[in-house]
Amino acid sequence: MRVLMLGWEFPPYIAGGLGTACHGLAHALTKQGVQVDFMLPHASAKRSNKSFRIISASEVPIIKSKVSKAMTGLDRLESEYLQKTSFIFRSLYPFSGGYGKKLYEEVYWYTRAIETIAKSGKFDVIHAHDWLTYPAGIAARAISGKPLVVHVHATEYDRSPKINPTIFYLEKLGMRSAQAVLAVSDFTRRKIVSRYGIPTGKVVVSYNGAGNKRSKDRAPRYLKEKVVTFLGRITWQKGPEYFIEAARKVLDVNDNVRFVMAGNGDLLSNMILKVARLKMSSKFHFTGFLKGAQVDRILGMSDVFVMPSVSEPFGIAPLEAMKSGVPVIVSRQSGVSEVLSSAIKVDFWDTDALSNAINGLLLYPSLVREIRKEGESNLRDLTWSRAAAVVNSTYRAAV
């Protein structure tokens, strides 16, 4: 089995959980005998072996299209966005691979670049991750005749309270065009069925996995207080304001705590101002975006991890914390809550319950020991190997 996999992130090009998920899944599939050709918008760090190959769209010649723009959704991108740019035909497009102002333009040219790859037909199935690559997946299917599987890591209903109609359109088009739709949780599956009108039998739940277990050795502590950490994009979806409000309530009864908000996002400035208004600046730290060893280090210094997401399709960050032996609190409005019996679960808006849970973990070591023990069992069950088995089975059914 050979798969043409389409994604916007893959380490070291990573902005969040999508890149981590693509990496874990792709390598687990190769161990199960699947050959993976992974196409990124831009990749200067190439890697290739018998089972895995990175393709950089920046180096793929763009040919005159024979695929219907209406079929792929490119007609909508062209009419709504590309007319605002210097829209000229390019034989090679200089992708940034990011999420900047030219994102729609890059999605357009990524789709055009896939046509050269798809003409070879040297694959058995196409696997597209999230809406940015759905048009390319549809184009590859039209050219090659090979089946398309789309993977939903998040929907537009998770990302923002204001729905972007173009992204919603491309999501729905991709899901309807695919032979099968992979959802990262039952929480996401229900949204796909109810919001996008996709038949239940077409949607397969494949939970994300946890990577290799980290050492539980504590990182050097420079603070005498306990440390409570939020790690993720500072956006509406992740609920950072609820973390800050709960922090104020914790500090009202327990002054021996420091709070860390690790990440970046459009609400960062607002959250800094909120902390100042609540008079917690001396107890609150904003680190900016962290990755790799930096994440390991902050988790190694943490006593509690909190993910108060408003709408979270899955949520890989709690698994990262658990691998470091850190007890976690997650919102009930998250897919990962379905598979973590060890996590304390609260509604994202209930800051009283959240602050009580934080205080409970800080004050009762016996509770932490029990949660860690149960967490080890959860991590043994949540493997990328298990996720890859579900995906591999979905490939074979589609073929």
Descriptive report:
The radius of gyration is 22 Å and the shape is globular. It has 399 residues and is α/β, with parallel strands linked by helices. α8 links the parallel β6 and β7. It has two domains: 224 residues, 3-Layer(aba) Sandwich (Rossmann fold), CATH 3.40.50.2000; 156 residues, Glycogen Phosphorylase B (Rossmann fold). The chain has 15 helices and 13 strands.
CATH class of the largest domain: Alpha Beta
Specify the CATH architecture of the largest domain: 3-Layer(aba) Sandwich
What is the assigned CATH homologous superfamily of the largest domain? Glycogen Phosphorylase B
Order of helices and strands: EHEEHHHEHEHHEHEEHEHEHEHEEHHH
Overall mean pLDDT stands at 92
Q: Return the structural class.
A: alpha/beta
Total helical elements: 15
